Sequence to fold (109 residues):
Amino acid sequence: MTRNPQTLQSTDPRLEALLQDGYVIVGESWGARLRLTDPFDLAAFTAAIEKAATQGFAVQELDAGWAPQVTALEALTYDDYPRTPATEIPHRTGSSARVAPKPTPAASA
Fold:
């Protein structure tokens, strides 16, 4: 087994040659497969949130004020995350967590 890990996308032209040279795939990141439209269409997610609400769940956006609780939860579950070169999760703190920008809803057809 090689001791020189490589992190590649599945479409990388070097992949086949590395596999032929004895490299093996040791991990995959599902996030690397996520494809979003631009602008992103929130309709499916909005429908899922509405369905969850009818079942008694509360779904809300978290602002920066939630960073300490989110990073505390990440710290508690850190050892549950997979460890490969493609999936390493950094340790975050409340001050290093960022709020993602709000997606722009797709225009209605």
Notes: The two ends are 53 Å apart (CA to CA).
